[in-house]
Every structure is written in structure tokens, then in C-alpha cells.
Design goal:
This protein is mainly alpha-helical and 341 residues long. It has helices at residues 15-83, 88-123, 147-157, 159-180, 219-287, 293-327, 331-339; strands at residues 2-13, 185-196, 202-213. Helix content is 74%, strand content 11%. A hairpin with a 5-residue loop joins strand 2 and strand 3.
Length: 341
């Protein structure tokens, strides 16, 4: 006796499966937007670390330039003291200023090296690996834009907002799936085979069964599933509304920071120019023998302070622009445009 059979079982209609498939697709989109949001955060962290290294490098260069100027002042004061045209106090004052500037250079270089280590960690390379940053401190004015325009851009580009939108769609599909559990489920089962004596005539056999399942006595369980799904949907909707308000707040705050730091940069540039001119004038007075080293040292200190304020202002201005790009959801695509490089 020989027998051969083929079995087939197929769900023809199930509202729960259909809505569950839609929910799974929405969950897939939510995971994608979560990944993209993390990428934007990485871009901001790396850019911030890069800007910190550039700022520290500028501080080192300024400190070294002033140290060189202090060395020239010390040599001049020493020469005048040896010639008997200046008091020993002037040479001592110049030597103290030079040594203090040496300390500043050492401290600034140490801070820069630690900032480089942090940058290497952010980009995933060994702390001891040598790197060279080729871009100087970027600076460019950022065109003013209306908050409503930035909000619209943020709604269209921010991955966390799109993530919540996908979660909202997912939970709506889950609510629909819980409602669809009340619908009948139609399944089909079939069997086809052949049987007969080996080597003789075979005849076919066929079985077909259709099953319609109606959940009559599961109403309490179905209501519970629907209530849970609706509660999850309400939570996501509330999160979405809170995120809209937070985006508005973030965009407006970032814009205010950009405007304020831009003005600070302009003032810092002016202060550096004024302090440089004051130091130049005081140097001429010292070389002409009209002043001792005290006013010159004070003028150098004011210039150093002005240069440090300029570096810090540029750093904060660039950070504010990065924050604005992040709040608008375009930091990964447009960070160069926002920084001006």
C-alpha cells in the first residue's frame, strides 16, 4: 500500500493580523528614526569637541605670542638696567610677567592636549594617535530666520519627532488590532493525496475544510486589550504634544543664544583691536623712555584678557549655532553651513 499526501492550511481573513502588520511596519520606522536621532547627537558631540580643541589651540597661540612679546620686554628692561637708564624694579617686573606668561602657556597647552584626547574618544581613535586639525576656528554670520519657519523645518526633519509620530501610528494600529479581535476569523485547511496498491492503480483523495471563528465569549478580555492599547495611544499623543512645545522652546532659545553670542563676538573683536592699539602705544612710550614697565605689563594683561574673551565668544557662538541646527533637526546635513565651513 502506497500513500502520498499534501496538506495546506491558510488564514484567509484576520483583522488582527492585518492591523498587527501595519503596527509592525510603524514600529520599524520608529526604530529607524531612533537610530537617526542618535546619529545627530553624535555629530553634535564630535563637532563640540572639535571646536573645543580649536578654541584651546587659539588660546595657546595667543599665549605664546604674548610670551614672545614679554621676552622682548624682558630683554629691553635688562639692557636698560645694565646701561643704568632703568631701575632694577623694571627688570624684575618684566621677568615676573614673562614667567607668569610661561605658566599660562603650559596650562593652555595642557588643556588643549586633554581636549584632543576627548576628541579622539568621540571619533573612536586611540588616545595616543597623532592628529592634526586642518580647519581654523570657523566664523560667519547666520542669516536670521523666523521661529515659525524653524519650527516647520524641525517638524519635518527632527528624528525624535518623527519617531513619536511613528509610535503614534503604531499604537493606533494596535488599537485597531484590538478592535479587530472581535471580527470573525476565516481559515482554510486542505488535504490532497493518492493511495493505492504499489505498482497498481492509484486514486486521489481530497479534503477541504473551511472554519469560521467568532469570539462570542471573550468580550471581557477584548475590552481589556482595547483599554490598554488606548492608554498607550493617549500616552504617545501626550508625549507628541509635549515635544511640539519643547521644540518651540528649543528653537526660540537657540535663536536668542545665537543672536546674543553674535553680538558678544563683535564686541570681543572690537576689544581686541583696542587692546592691541593700546599695547602698541604703550610699547612706543616705553621704548621712548616715557613710561616704565608697569603700564606696559598692564596693557599686555588687558590684551590677553581681550583675546581670551574673543576665543571664548567664538566658541560659544559656534556652539549656539550647532544647538540651533540640532533643534531644527538638520545638524547632520547642514552643520557646515551653520558653522560657516
Amino acid at each position: 500500500m502506497t500513500t502520498g499526501q499534501i496538506n495546506l492550511e491558510q488564514t484567509v481573513f484576520s483583522g488582527t493580523y492585518f492591523q498587527g502588520y501595519k503596527a509592525a511596519r510603524a514600529a520599524e520606522k520608529s526604530s529607524y528614526f531612533s537610530k537617526m536621532s542618535a546619529r545627530g547627537e553624535v555629530v553634535q558631540q564630535v563637532a563640540t569637541a572639535y571646536l573645543a580643541v580649536i578654541a584651546d589651540e587659539a588660546e595657546v597661540e595667543n599665549a605664546k605670542a604674548l610670551m614672545d612679546a614679554d621676552k622682548v620686554l624682558l630683554d629691553q628692561a635688562h639692557a636698560k638696567h645694565e646701561a643704568g637708564t632703568a631701575a632694577n624694579l623694571d627688570e624684575l617686573r618684566a621677568r615676573v610677567q614673562f614667567q607668569q606668561q610661561q605658566q599660562t602657556v603650559v596650562a593652555d597647552e595642557n588643556r588643549r592636549e586633554k581636549a584632543e584626547i576627548l576628541l579622539k574618544r568621540e571619533i573612536g581613535i586611540a588616545p595616543g594617535q597623532k592628529i592634526e586639525l586642518t580647519d581654523p576656528a570657523p566664523y560667519s554670520d547666520l542669516a536670521s530666520r523666523a521661529p515659525e519657519e524653524l519650527k516647520t523645518e524641525a517638524y519635518a526633519n527632527r528624528q525624535d519627532y518623527q519617531n513619536l509620530q511613528a509610535q503614534e501610528l503604531e499604537t493606533r494600529m494596535l488599537v485597531s488590532a484590538s478592535k479587530a479581535e472581535r471580527l470573525p476569523t476565516l481559515t482554510f485547511k486542505g488535504n490532497y493525496g493518492v493511495t493505492g496498491v504499489t505498482g497498481s492503480v492509484y486514486h486521489g483523495t481530497l479534503t477541504a475544510i473551511g472554519t469560521l471563528k467568532i469570539p462570542i465569549f471573550k468580550e471581557a478580555s477584548l475590552r481589556g486589550d482595547t483599554a490598554v492599547a488606548r492608554a498607550e495611544l493617549q500616552g504617545v499623543v501626550q508625549q507628541l504634544g509635549d515635544l511640539r512645545d519643547r521644540i518651540d522652546q528649543q528653537v526660540r532659545s537657540a535663536q536668542l543664544d545665537v543672536q546674543a553670542t553674535q553680538q558678544l563676538v563683535a564686541v570681543a573683536h572690537s576689544n581686541v583691536d583696542l587692546a592691541s592699539q593700546a599695547l602698541s602705544d604703550e610699547t612706543d612710550r616705553f621704548n621712548a623712555g616715557l613710561d616704565d614697565t608697569l603700564p606696559l605689563v598692564q596693557a599686555q594683561a588687558r590684551l590677553q584678557s581681550a583675546q581670551s574673551n574673543l576665543v571664548e565668544s567664538l566658541y560659544q557662538y559656534n556652539l549656539a549655532k550647532l544647538a540651533l541646527a540640532r533643534s531644527a533637526g538638520v545638524i547632520e546635513q547642514q552643520y557646515r553651513a551653520y558653522l560657516g565651513r
